[in-house]
Amino acid sequence: MKIKNLLILLVFLSLSYAKVMAQNTYDIVFPNTENDRDTNCQQCIQAFSKKPKEVKFSIKREGNNLYFQINDKKWFNNLFKGSGDGIAVDVVAKNRFDCEIESIESSQIMGKLLKPIYGSKLRNGLKPFGENGFRVHVGRISDTDINKELEYNILFLNNKNLCNYYFIYDLKSYPWDLLDMGVYLDSLTYNTKKITPESQEGFVIRNKKLRFKIPFKKNKSEYSQEDIKPIYDSLRLTDFNIKTIRIKAYASIEGSLKRNIVLQEQRANSIVAALQSFQKPTISTEVSSSENWVEFLNDIEGTKHENLKTLTKSEVKAKLTGELANALEPILKQHRKAVLEMELEKKDKYKNMSADVLLEKFNTAISSEKLKEALEIQNSIFEKLKSKEISPEFLIGMEIPKQAKFAKIFNKNSAIRYMLDIRKSLIVYNELLELEKLVPKDAEVKYNIMSIKMKLWRHRALEINEAKLKNQIAALKNYKIDKALILRMMVNFHIIKAENAMYKRDYVAKDKSVAFINSNYKKIDLSDYDYLSLAQFFSYYANLDMAVALLENKSRTIHIDEDLLFYYLNLTIVNKELTKDLNYRTILLNALNLNKGRFCKLFNAVEDGGVTFQLLNDVYLRKTYCESCKN
User: Fold this and answer.
1) Is there a contact between 108 and 18 (Cβ–Cβ < 8 Å)?
2) Closest to 607 measured CA to CA, from 106, 123, 92
3) Can you say whether the dihedral through the CA atoms of 360, 366, 370, 375 is positive or negative?
4) Contact between 90 and 113 (Cβ < 8 Å)
């Protein structure tokens, strides 16, 4: 049995005890004070304090039947030793949180409490289920509730005393990695990685991406020649075609939403049409649009209009007329714009040649020592590899002598093989060590060796002397490798060191490496995937505050990657201290603007792909949900 990796939130009873709803609570004892709980729940508290993090449990439904599922029978039996140790399920319906209800009644029991199951009945009823799992029947859903949207909270009982009350939250996790160090081809080149459960890999040369901000006048969709001139100039100065255009068009928040959407689409389309006129190859375009609530809420902070942040969106729009609209125009005019990002690709004069012809021309250029021509053909071959017109095995036919004068071409071929298939890391690493003997002062070869070496170390494919490796990284400055690249590599050094220290249970060494990372990541340029990797690293090593601090400011910008923003919500949305902050509302509206459907789905039942609809017990989240998802 594979139990889904859900985040399970433990709610301890506190001195300000919520009342129990007027319903049958069977023989469950609800402690009156925290001292009562500590006295009567010692065995349960101790069992949970010793629970290995690998132990997973959940409530699963089959038809009307509910089962408690777990992957560790020994811990289960230790938890339910006595005759009064048991489980009760609180069946919670989403309609408890309907937007039509003015306020949600506070109660320890959120829904309909099922009869507890105790001691020997639990232990004897636990049966093997699935792969390495077990389950026991813990109750039935009534026929009147079967078609409702439901969730199942767990009451853990010690000698019939309620000791722990669990909500189960489904928070999506993502793969993570070291900060991307890239390798040198013609210039430093990176594997592109999207923040998705299944990463998509490709290639991107970062310095061949251009970003522009194009302002628009109120109620106008046209752009001025003066505004667009920087784009014209940039294109005239290069030998590149536009490969893709991503446009995010923003309207200021006043006025009709419908009218604003029309304006956004007109603005985006006018830009695409103008830029397509520059070239014959069709430009791949991606257009999104929204009202610019994020910057509006950020920009009124600290002004005499800051009180608008407490209002609903419809209330703000109703006020933004007449004198107030005129007073805020200096702010609003900054929000009418399009943010344009273009990915360029070098014009390829060999593009229409077949792969076989290219290979013949490449080998001829090499034998004739026409290095510039060979490099151009090599780049054309790489483009065909990226588009999967040819397979990586094609590289075997490229005849490159191991001589110093061919070092750049040889280095590029080795690096591209590594990027195409990380399983060839050790082979490429050894190839580059041999190349280094021919060109011992070549900075690009040395950097590529160190980049691949770090990966091999992390995957335990090489035995590494940490002190020696640290000195080798620092020595890259002698070859004029950029300081920021060296620091990025040093951060990765400490990520791997922290992982190894954790494996050895050397917590002091682990904490020192985490502190180094936290002190230095701000000094380097991070991609969205880098932000994700660091946030997951901090979270994994129980430094949630560092993960939140890393993403907090970025989450309030309109340029944040959608998946990164929703990951930030994963980290924070169950924290009631954060959600009541007005600045957090800006973050919620940012997520709404990026993907309303995805945002609203967070409040679905766990079984329906949500985090949990019980987030709606939070008055601030409920206000945003009811305002935006039910209108």
Assistant:
1) yes
2) 92
3) positive
4) yes
Please check whether residue 494 is in contact with residue 517, taking contact to mean a CB–CB distance below 8 angstroms: yes
Residue whose pair of structure tokens reads 């603005």 in the numeric block: 267
Q: Residue with structure tokens 């985090």? A: 611
- 57-62 and 134-140 beta bridge pairing: unpaired
Q: Could you tell me which residues come within 8 angstroms of residue 220 by beta carbon, excluding any fewer than 6 positions away?
A: none
Amino acid at 541: Y
150-179 pLDDT, tens digit each: 999 999 999 999 999 988 887 676 667 899
Strand, helix or coil at 139? strand
CA nearest 170: which of 603, 619, 630, 616? Answer: 603
What is the rounded distance in angstroms from the CA atom of residue 445 to the CA atom of residue 432?
A: 7
Residue position matching structure tokens 């049958």: 24
In which order are the strands placed within the sheet that holds 209-215?
209-215, 337-346, 240-251, 284-291
pLDDT tens digit string along 182-214?
888 876 666 555 444 333 444 343 436 778 888
DSSP secondary structure string, 290-308?
EE-HHHHHHHTTTSTTGGG
Pick the range with the lowest mean pLDDT from 27-36, 230-239, 568-577. Answer: 230-239
Residue count (the chain): 631
The maximal CA–CA distance of the chain, rounded, in angstroms, is: 92
What global pTM score does this model have? Answer: 0.77
φ, ψ for residue 92, nearest 5 deg? -110, 130
- pLDDT value of residue 176: 74
